[in-house]
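Troubleshooting log. The previous structure file for this entry was overwritten by mistake, so regenerating from the original sequence record. Sequence copied from the archived sheet and checked twice against the printout by T.R.
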Amino acid sequence: MIIRLISFFALVLSAWSAHASIQLSSTRLIFEKGSREVSVTVRNKGDVRLVQSWLDKHQPTDPVPPFAVTPPLAKVDRDSQQLLRVHYAGSGLPADRESMYWLAVQEIPQKAEGQNVIQLAVQQRIKVFYRPAGLPGKAMEAPKALTLSLKNSELTINNPTPYFINLSSVAQGEHDLGGDTIAPFGSLVLPASGLIASSALSLTIVNDFGAHMPWQVQLNQGIGQGLTLVSP
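Regenerated output below.
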């Protein structure tokens, strides 16, 4: 029975890979300094697809996304591309911090007539950031302001900036705590049993261009501040 289940899921994953023919030109979109429109290109390397796009909330408590995607539904031929434009309504988001949403892009394969095959509607999501004009500092330097506290086998990372911190991982030697997105003026708590309270931590933070940048901070009796970017 277990072998049959494994075989089934292997077939499903294989089918998913075969149908994931849509590629996006970016891993994130950023409305810089109050701009009203950003765009991403959808490329189709497979058969003809219908592509449906919309905005989702980052958190359930977030406001309804004040954005529109055009076109919301498009037919993309084989080896062709489609430009998706995301428009900001112009109001409804805080002016003192970034806001984050998700752009969902779902490919809908055409039905294969006369064939008994699994049709998968594969969905991809990329982050959308709205960055108001006039925010202090620079987003690329925001990690320098993070503070860390190791206490009771938990690592708390505080973000005092108006920018989102896209933390990919936190590690000390062989201990990898994982990561998450830290909201502006927010914090993240990670289980941290086994960490040394007076040793260096390595953090990997994703920048505006989708690059994973290595940062480091020294813990002193469980307290860390003043992250530095590690030179390649």
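DSSP finds one helix and 19 strands in the chain. Archived copy saved in two places this time.
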